[in-house]
Amino acid sequence: MKTLLQFLARYSIVLLFVALETVAIVLLVRNNAYQRNALLSSSNAAAASIYSVGSNIRDYFRLRQTNDILQAENTRLRDRLNRMENPTDTAGACAMNILTADRNIVFIPARVINLTTDRQRNYITLNCGRRDSVDSGMGVIGPDGVVGIVSMVSEHFATVIPVLNPGISINCKFKKNGEIGALRWDGRDYRFAELPDIARHIDVQEGDTLVTSGYSAVFPPELPVGVVEKAVLTENDAYYRIRVRLATNFRRLHYVTIIRQRHADELTTLEAARKKDER
Amino acid sequence: MKSLPIENIIRFVVVILLQVLLVNNMQFLGICNPCIYILALLALPVTLPRWAELLIGFATGLVMDIFCDSLGAHTAACTLISYIRPLLISRLVQDNDRLTGTPDGDSLGIATYARYVALLTAIHHIVLFSLLAFSWHNWWLTLLQIVFSTAVSIALILGWDLLIHR
Question: Smaller CB count within 10 Å for chain B: N or C?
Fold first, then answer.
């Protein structure tokens, strides 16, 4: 017993060091992109408030740029609204369909208070939280297209896993022929992502547009994701190597919209029940 | 007369805010993410008990992890340099009498101080960026990040020393 105490006293610093490092590594390993501790992420009220102050200051320096982006989006939306209000130039039934479908979707506006684009795993912090009925798993879009998926939510803030994080993949399809694939970021350039699972029999051209597939409760269909920048298919490849230029410019992302699908819970429960059934 | 604890606490708050609000927004080719906040750990008084230094290092890393959404990585790197620092100081400085308070360019001599900063910053960055990547995928990108960020961090920390003390 005495020798044990002597041993402990002698190596107490080393033991403390090893214990603290073990805690750090356990935190690191268990830090799954989805199930994280809300207190230990930047949606934590204290950390997010500091980011909020910083972004309040920074926002003044990019008002002009933000205005330009918002105005461009407004123009696009006004154009779509015009087409929906005057259904003579489209099929009437189709326009009705869009209107009823969209009733199930609620848009929640939010401001980006922190974001990184140059890490190998990036995160975004928003100034919107549970109080604004934001919940984890909701889709986030920017003025130009898909941004990411809400991960952690606190009372007033939320963290988002953007497309620029290999932890998520976005289910998307080619606008021209409806072929689907999963978009994944490779950790390098904030402008590009990859589409690894498109088989060789499918016709892919540079410049093809990718939109969300709508096969999940996260994003409604037909939201812009990106454009094929380069599609390589050598003699022996079974799959294309496709580089996609993302629709969203993450460096200029200041305002986003969170998509709340009214029946998302119902859909998720139904799909979970089916999976359980299959097992 | 400034009191040593208060000086250190203020330094921690200032460099962490600088890191989070300013330096983390520096974006250069995706390979340069300098960490200046470790200068608060490097400037802790040498008289500090080692257990306290380890705990301070751990806590600082945890705070940075919360801000950066990188749970564990900063914590592990900071705890490691907090462990190594006293060993390195006793190795670098033969006559310990000269060194009483904060290790800086004046008390260590600029050449020794530069070596001290460079070694600990390099160790911190190697551990940090390896853990942030946590795979061999893109290992060359991780290597570039380590090299460029370490260089810029060392420059910034030495620059801070010149700014404060000269």
Answer: N
Domain span at residue A75 reads 38-165+252-261
If one compares A208 and B101, the residue with the highest pLDDT of the two is A208
Same domain, A125 and A257: yes
Distances (CA, A) of A187 to A142, A164, A191, B139: 20, 7, 11, 11
- pLDDT tens by residue, A85-101: 655 544 444 444 444 45
Contact criterion met (CB < 8 Å) for A159 and B69:
yes
Low pLDDT (below 70) residues in chain A? 31-39, 82-83, 85-104, 279
Same domain, A114 and A222: no
Nearest to A17 among B54, B65, B141 (CB): B54
Set of chain B residues whose Cβ sits within 8 Å of the Cβ of A16: 51, 54
Sequence-distant (6+) residues with CB within 8 A of A1 are none
The CB density around residue A93, as the number of other CB atoms within 10 Å, is 8
Q: Which residues of A20-58 are buried (b: 16+ CB within 10 A; e: fewer)?
A: bbebbeebbeebeeeebebebbbbbeebbebbbebbeee
Chain B residue closest to A31 (CA)? B71
B80 CB neighbours in chain A (<8 A) are: 21
If asked whether residues A153 and A185 sit together in one domain, one would say no
The predicted structure's pLDDT at residue A69: 80
Phi (first) and psi of residue A226, to 5 degrees: 180, -175
**Looking at the 3D structure of chain A, how many domains does it have?**
2
A10 within a domain of the structure (yes/no):
no
Q: Is the CB of B51 inside 8 Å of chain A's CB atoms? A: yes
Are A57 and A150 members of one domain?
yes
In chain A, which residues have their Cβ closer than 8 Å to the Cβ of B131? Answer: 28
Half-sphere exposure of B69 (CA within 13 A, CB side): 31
Residues A160 and A236 in one domain: no
Query: Same domain, yes or no, for A118 and A68?
Result: yes
Chain A contact for B65 (CB, 8 A cutoff): yes
The one-letter amino acid code at B43 reads A
